[in-house]
Amino acid sequence: MDQPTTRTIDEWDYAVPDRKLTDSEKKRFSGTMEYWYPPLSKISNVKTPQTEWVNLKTVKIEPGTIHEMTSATYDMEELREAVKRIGLPAFIRTDMTSSIKESDTMKIESLSQTELQKCAGQAIKYNRNWAEVPFSSLVVREWLDIEHYFTVWGGKKVGVEIRFFTSGSTVESWCFDWNPEEIRPDTNNWKEDYQKTKDIAKENVEEVLPKAQAVANKFKDYGTGSWSVDFVRTTNGEWYCTDMAPRKQSQVCHEPFTLV
Ligand SMILES: Nc1ncnc2c1ncn2[C@@H]1O[C@H](COP(=O)(O)OP(=O)(O)O)[C@@H](O)[C@H]1O
Ligand SMILES: [Mg+2]
Q1: Cβ(228) to ligand 1 under 6 A?
Q2: Is the CB of 33 under 6 A from ligand 1?
Q3: Ligand 1 mean position to 62 CA, how many Å?
Q4: For 17-75, what is each residue's pLDDT tens digit?
Q5: Residue 130 pLDDT > 80, yes or no?
Q6: Which of 199-203, 222-226, 250-254 reaches the highest mean pLDDT?
Q7: pLDDT by residue (tens digit) across 68-104?
Q8: What's the number of CA atoms in the CB half-sphere (13 Å) around residue 84?
Q9: For ligand 1, what atom is nearest to the CA of residue 99?
Q10: In 3D, which of 51, 9, 6 has the Cα closest to residue 28?
């Protein structure tokens, strides 16, 4: 599938569930990568991971019974070709969200059917159970080696990440979005590592700010005009913008730092 152009709500094919969106779901529509990725990828001073799209189609499981459930299917060859174009390892999520607590299935490490089914299946299952809005495609991305000093939930890296909050063309604040109350660290001495990760993020805010500003300028008329914008630092010191969300839908920040 070619990179999507920015679609409107009415042009979007929902994979799950196969019904019309409710009003509150419509408000969350701009959270889909299909909405924000095309404009984001065109900003010249902002790096994004190379990204490929795989269509999802709605499928009914055990239709007509009390066990009826809606899920999504994809074409295995289409997925394999997308992963080949990206190269191994690759990161997988849907247009709506990753299965963030399932780190072993977010990284595709081979082209085998078993591996592709495991990773794509987990992304779909997680979205079906947890995503707040319907999703419509699998997204395969260049794997980024994110700088990190500890892991949580059995292997998920807590990376050097900065989340900016924009309002119109103003970048108002930022935060280190990993709330210590909400993570389950894999090590006992994680508090030092947590502080170190957060300190590195803080030291880099000035450097990343012009990139966040470019995103704010581009997105001031998209959706509500207010966004959360996530940047991660890779082990070779480069900053990538990996995720965005309408600011209202983004988790409330536990410790925001004001910029203006
Ligand atoms: N391309 C990538 N390669 C490796 N890890 C990634 C990549 N993109 C995101 N991640 C990691 O996975 C986490 C979740 O991915 P993200 O795309 O932000 O989805 P979510 O909607 O679940 O927040 C990020 O916080 C980051 O740590
Ligand atoms: Mg994210």
Answers
A1: no
A2: no
A3: 33
A4: 666 778 877 877 888 999 999 999 999 999 999 999 999 988 888 989 999 888 899 99
A5: no
A6: 199-203
A7: 888 899 999 999 999 999 999 999 999 999 988 888 8
A8: 8
A9: 22
A10: 9
What secondary structure, in 3-state letters, does the chain show?
Answer: CCCCCCCCHHHCCCCECCCCCCHHHHHCHHHCHHHHHHHHHCCCCCECCCEEEEECEEEEECCCCCCCEEEEECCHHHHHHHHHHHCCCEEEEECCCCCCCCHHHHEECCCCHHHHHHHHHHHHHHHHHHCCCCECEEEEEECCCECEEEEECCCEEEECEEEEEEECCEEEEEECCCCCCCCCECCCCHHHHHHHHHHHHHHHHHHHHHHHHHHHHHHCCCCCCCEEEEEEEECCCCEEEEEEEEHHHCCCCCCCEECC
CA of 230 to the centre of ligand 2 (A): 7
CATH architecture of the domain formed by 148-258: 2-Layer Sandwich (3.30)
Domain-wise residue ranges, the chain = 9-142, 148-258
**Could you tell me the two tokens for 4?**
């999507």
Amino acid identity, position 202: K
Ramachandran quadrant class, 154 (left: phi over 0; alpha: psi -120 to 50; beta: rest): left
Atom of ligand 1 nearest to the CA of 141: 1
pLDDT of 251 reads 65
Per-chain residues with Cβ under 5 A from ion ligand 2: 243
